[in-house]
UniProtKB/TrEMBL annotation:
It comes from freshwater metagenome. PANTHER family: GUANYLATE KINASE (PTHR23117:SF13), GUANYLATE KINASE-RELATED (PTHR23117). Signal peptide: none annotated. This is guanylate kinase. SMART domains: GuKc. PROSITE patterns: GUANYLATE_KINASE_2 (PS50052). Pfam families: Guanylate_kin (PF00625), H2TH_5 (PF22525). It is an enzyme of class 2 (transferase). Keywords: ATP-binding, Kinase, Nucleotide-binding, Transferase. Its EC number is 2.7.4.8. GO terms for molecular function: ATP binding; GMP kinase activity; nucleic acid binding. One of its GO terms (cellular component) is cytosol. HAMAP family: Guanylate_kinase.
């Protein structure tokens, strides 16, 4: 048997550095595949030795949506050996892989549209804010002409716009629904809602009664949930004590709350907000149950 080649110290050092660089290249392309900035198919055009010597399965496992089981299926269907390196994959096999990728790209299941309504002060925002940290949900950000309250953040709590800008948005057909509420306009921009639904997210609209009615009419598949206070007294206390409104606005909101509470039966579900966590859990199970 031939003895292994004797390397000088300098040659060993050079080989070590080359191996480190190759590992770095492979880690980099895997990251790029994972974040979607390149595709596995770009690797077949790569000229770096480090990439061409990488195993195909390693690159495939970096693709979002490919796990052990899917990988097994792809390798079985294309007949490519698991030990095959990128540089050794033939043209025909690349075409077969492409076909598998086209089949994989079935769009995600459309998410559910969910309306959370109820009188001002009942705790809708506290509830929907909790849903913001759940990756299965996307809470719509409304446009409004009302004044920003202390502590509110533009483009997080609302898109605060002028009356003129709001009217232009109405004219440009940008709203899924919009309504007047105690002297200001509020509306749901339609485009981000449809995008989130198409991406499989459950979309939550936190809106007042007239907006909820428009959604019922225009999107009958939507799930309409009404939040009730534990008692009228409790609602009155919450609205008066939260200190965000003038006396006049509080009175207007209380008068409006009386009207809204009468409409609870128009909704698919009524939840009483005695405990926020419980209402959040109920909303999650309503959205996910079918
Ligand atoms: P607030 O001024 O307390 O933030 O909101 C007043 C009311 O307007 C609340 O009942 C809230 O749910 C509702 N609202 C917020 N955004 C929208 C929206 O885009 N459309 C409709 N119709 N109502 C909204």
């Amino acid at each position: 048997m031939k003895p292994p080649p004797q390397l000088t110290v300098a040659q060993r050092k050079a080989a070590g550095l080359k191996a480190v660089a190759a590992r770095r290249d492979r880690a980099m392309v895997k990251n790029q595949i994972a974040e979607g900035s390149i595709s596995v198919f770009d690797l077949f055009l790569d000229t770096r030795d480090s990439v061409l010597r990488m195993k195909l399965v390693e690159a495939l496992m970096a693709v979002p949506g490919i796990g052990e089981r899917r990988l097994e299926a792809i390798m079985a269907k294309t007949g490519i050996s698991k030990s095959r390196r990128i540089g050794g994959v033939g043209r025909k096999q690349i075409e077969q892989l492409r076909e598998e990728f086209v089949l994989m790209k079935t769009p995600p299941k459309q998410g559910k549209l969910m309306v959370v309504s109820g009188p001002s002060g009942v705790g809708k925002s506290t509830i929907t804010n909790k849903l913001k940290s759940d990756p299965r949900f996307w809470v719509s950000i409304s446009a409004t002409t009302r004044q920003k309250r202390q502590g509110e953040v533009s483009d997080v709590d609302y898109k605060f716009v002028s009356n003129e800008a709001f009217i232009k948005m109405i004219d440009d057909n940008e709203f899924l629904e919009w309504a007047e509420f105690t002297g200001a306009k509020y509306g749901t921009p339609a485009k981000p809602v449809f995008e989130a639904l198409a991406n499989g997210l459950n979309v939550v609209l936190e809106i007042e009664l007239n907006g909820a009615r428009q959604v019922r009419k225009n999107a009958p598949e939507a799930l309409l949930v009404f939040i009730e206070p534990p008692s009228w007294q409790e609602l009155e206390n919450r609205l008066t004590n939260r200190g965000t409104e003038s006396v006049e606005s509080t009175q207007l909101r209380l008068a409006r709350a009386k009207e809204e509470l009468k409409a609870a039966s128009e909704f698919d579900f009524v939840l009483v907000n005695t405990q926020v966590e419980q209402v959040v859990n109920e909303l999650v199970s309503l959205a996910l149950r079918s």
